[in-house]
Amino acid sequence: MSNNHNQSLGNVHSSVITENKMGWRKIMAFLGPAYLVSVGYMDPGNWATDIAGGSAFGYKLIWVLFASNLIALLLQSLSARLGIVRGLDLAQASKNAYPRFVNFWLYILAQIAIIACDLAEIIGMAIGLKLLFNLPLIWGVSLTITDTVLMLYLMNKGMRKLEAFIIAMIFIVGLSFLIEMFIVQPNVIEIAKGFAPDNLTGEALYIAIGIIGATVMPHNLYLHSSLVQTRQITRTDEGIRSAIKFNLFDTVIALNLAFLVNAAILILAATAFFKNGYFQVAEIQDAYKLLEHIFGRIAPALFAIALIASGQSSTITGTLAGQIIMEGHINLRIEPWLRRLLTRVLAIVPAVFTIIYFGENALGSLIILSQVVLSLQLGFAVIPLIHFTSDKKRMGNFSIGFPVKVLAWGSAMVIVALNAKLVFEQILDWIKEYPASAFWIYTIVVPVVIGIALLLLYVFLRPMLYKHKDRPAYVPHGIASAITELDAIIYKHIAVTIDFSKNDNDCLRHAIMQGGKRANYTLIHVVETAGARYYGKQVMDNETQSDVDNLNKYVTALEKLGYKAQAQIGYGSPARSIAKIVNEENIDFLVMGSHGHKALKDLIFGTTVNTVRHRVNIPVLVVKPQ
Question: Looking at the predicted structure, is the pLDDT value of residue 535 above 70?
């Protein structure tokens, strides 16, 4: 079994084969990662800023969207390059370059940003469910927790199935807005004029900053550097160069589609609201009502469907990003469903709290707050990314050239400066709006912001002051040691788990292959009835007696064939009971049958093998059903 613990998204690492393919098949093999990334560029947070910009200023801010998309294209291409060339995601590269204490805080900030992003997606989906089915927002928010099951199902199906689902969601969003464009009939000439840069002041500048902050998201840079590693490539200069080229195609196509969706939302707001005198539409709910008022039922229904699809797809990619930063920064790996559940619960709590104590109308402000939090994190992803891809020692011939470096640092400066301005103005607004809370803002919020700014300065300076002082280049599987002699291992005591299924025969056969007639065999079965859980060995209900009799039949059959066998019955939790028997009986090899469950059944039944494997210190052979 390969050791994939240190690989980024180890369960799908190098799972998509790209070699021995030509023409369009080659291109299709690489298409996918950027589509998962692109959903973060069209999530409900983007909707809020696009609707506000279009309703207040018409088509004038389209050029801001376009410029944001160009910056995103540059940064996402650098992220993909890092993952392809070094075989590292951004979090892993940061772990190698920065001290453990700094990595811990980088993880905390990135995790907060993902929760903030998830918060916007929860609210967006809940609003979409309310608009479409008149479901109360608090119920819609609570229902979003069920997407953990969908996430688990898609991950079990493999990377291509997950990508297909996301692309389907993007298609629904894109098609919905394409149809709406025909309904509202925007002025094409005025749209073209919107691509010309204009001077930004006052509220226009504030909304423009919000658009940039909502467009270039930090977790997407972590995500992209990992997702490109799902493609299996030849580790030669030619193979790496080819992978960079095809992933650039993927990035350009996917992010331009995201730009078209964002532009469509802004154009829809400009045509439907700005042209009709509704200049202050900042709430998604208001946009829905006005669409219904102006264009009838079809346009708002499409709007709600697209909102749900956008929120659902974005929340799945947020889970993957959370897994990447946790494993990369602090080397902690937990089950994806648990990772998803934790992130979702942490995001649901502030949404439910806001609805209960401030009402549904406050959710719009909560979305804006989530974008402010995202803004704080952005520099911590962008600055290390540019440092890592500029490093000629680590990147070799694939380090970025001077012109790209200038563009990248220029983009970083713009992003950090504009987002710093956004945070500064937000703090001033809080002080003006809540003067009674000014003391707490100065004593808690301001010091936190200053601390974050100092950490950002350290992240920027360390790679320059301690150039090439990071830890040795990351090696996923360690260094191969010399192989001298390989003596056969003789197992004296082998345990076999029995569940009275068709798989028992295969498990016993594999166990006998390991020990022959020299070994002792212990057959283990666990009784899981309610009585067994409460009373343990004292229970003798009908099912327990039947299981004991059946297990003894197996023992008798093995003894007739000349093997030494005994039966052991466990009670209650299968994993705990099996591990207890293995440890108490001094067993040196364990054979277990796998249920072969998928999706929801995996969550309910399929964790026994994995749990036992972590509770025992002996080799475990897992036999899957034929």
Answer: no
- HEC string of 325-343? HHHHHHCCCCCHHHHHHHH
Buried residues in 426-441 as b, exposed as e (16+ CB within 10 A): bbeebeeeeeeeeeeb
Closest CA to 225 of 395, 369, 341: 395
Both tokens of 280, joined, read: 């202050």
- Quick one: average pLDDT of 43-53? 74
pLDDT for 151 equals: 61
Asked whether 267 and 186 are in contact (CB, 8 A), the reply is yes
Measured CA to CA, the distance from residue 163 to residue 154 in angstroms comes to 9
Question: Is 566's pLDDT higher than 90?
Answer: yes
Determine the straight-line distance between the first and last CA of the chain, rounded to whole angstroms.
19
Catalogue the E-assigned strands of 268-331: none
Nearest-angstrom CA–CA distance, 94 and 88: 10
- Cα 288 to Cα 380: distance, rounded to the nearest angstrom: 36
Angle, alpha carbons 341-344-349 (nearest 5°): 120
166-169 long-range contacts, Cβ below 8 Å, gap at least 24? 166/35, 166/36, 166/39, 166/313, 166/316, 166/317, 167/32, 167/35, 169/39, 169/309, 169/310, 169/312, 169/313
Is residue 195 within 8 Å of residue 356, measured between CB atoms?
no
- Residue pair 89/8 in contact (Cβ under 8 Å)? The answer is yes
Residue 231's nearest CA partner among 29, 85, 398 is 29
Largest CA distance in the chain: 91
Tell how strand 493-497 and strand 620-623 pair up.
unpaired
* Entry pTM: 0.69
